[in-house]
């Protein structure tokens, strides 16, 4: 690997500067993304290895990030399990057949890794194009977050149906979560076999949960997944919105890296984690709308707090928004790359 800053930081080894990549780095804030998106549907893009590779490479070539992330979506596992998934412009993901009762839950399939082979295909094409320049991050959605989309039938503000399921029918919730967890283990091990260099588990909506519910319905399954991965040499990142609260339990699940949202003081989180566990984060993505002077100030301030620390990957606290100016994203990456410890 020519540039292994990201891998070293993820394993808490010394680096000359923090590595940088950004969640949603291959997306709608780029004109070049729209040039492709205007010709295909989002799912077609995910399912055609050459196109998924083209999109994955955009931020590698145009932004100079230190890691690539596979172009796909967290909901492809739920689709493979039987969810009728569509992405509508301005609406986001929709499942036409939400999971609302025991029969729906029983109908969810678990032996589905064959249906996800297009992802292995994409990983192989991307690795041919990367030629060992930088690592490739694979990913999946965490069981609780995927469950929430299956139950709500799409995005939700309050996760009302999901919480009702957890509270009124915990056994049924556990049955579905275990199915998703088993699919996720197979899927992530398939990604490792296909050649990804790191993995991130996205539990985007865990912040909706109370502490005990997080433990029972999110943490338990994430820990199960981490324990079943062939992770030798492949660092694993645990992301959730809510990590500023849940970081101590996230650490117990045993990832290599905890990815932190922007509410938390990154150094405080780092100091609270076990020795040798790295942090990723945590610039407020809204800072990237601001003047370049502010962007630089905020990044350098973040770095000040992390001075002398191994195990720090620079990222945003959540994904890049579609209307953030491309120039500002590029500038932020330059600021990181000019820095040295
Ligand atoms: O980070 C990357 O650049 C890699 C690709 C990636 C996408 N989705 C592409 C995408 C990744 C890692 C994801 C993960 C994902 N998908 C998450 C977890 C990360 C997070 O944001 O918390 C979640 C919750 C989803 C589900 C999802 N997919 C939603 C809610 C939406 C629509 C809403 C939105 O943000 O626009 C998507 C669609 C989606 N996934 C797009 C992209 C580029 C937009 C598709 C389009 O062009 O319309």
Characterization of the model:
- This protein has 341 residues and is α/β, with parallel strands linked by helices.
- It has a single domain (5-338), classed as Alpha-Beta Barrel (TIM Barrel), CATH 3.20.20.
- Helices cover 48% and strands 12% of the residues.
- Strands 1-4-5-6-7-8-9 form a 7-stranded parallel beta sheet. A two-stranded antiparallel ribbon has the order 2-3.
- Strand 2 (85-88) and strand 3 (92-95) form a beta hairpin.
- The protein is globular and about 55 Å long.
- Substrate binds at residues 24-28, 73, 149, 204, 318.
- Residues 19-28, 137-153 form the Uroporphyrinogen decarboxylase (URO-D) domain.
- It is an enzyme of class 4 (lyase).
Summarize the structure.
With 341 residues, this protein is an alpha/beta fold. It has helices at residues 5-10, 31-37, 42-47, 49-63, 76-80, 102-107, 117-130, 143-152, 160-168, 170-194, 211-227, 243-252, 266-272, 292-306, 326-338; strands at residues 68-69, 85-88, 92-95, 136-141, 198-203, 236-240, 257-259, 278-283, 312-316. The site of coproporphyrinogen III has 21 residues, from strand 3.
Could you name the key traits of this structure?
15 helices; globular; TIM Barrel; 9 strands; 48% helix; binds coproporphyrinogen III; seven-stranded parallel sheet; alpha/beta
